[in-house]
Amino acid sequence: ALAKGCIVLHHKGYKYTNDNIEQLLQTRYLSAMVRKSGKRTKGPKPFTAEDKEKFRVLFKSMIALQK
């Protein structure tokens, strides 16, 4: 999707970019390997009002750019 010029937003209020996608995918892969090895991991932090506000602001700014 990024290669096709799509805008991809995370629900925690940040944008996936060509600059950060490799790191995010690497983190995802390493976390999967830890889980697969049987080690216990923590779940995601709760979705907060601050996260909701960050997403709202980012989403509105992305919509404004498309107009």
Automatic annotation (TrEMBL):
Pfam families: DUF188. Belongs to the UPF0178 family. PANTHER family: UPF0178 PROTEIN YAII. This is YaiI/YqxD family protein. It comes from Bacillus cereus.
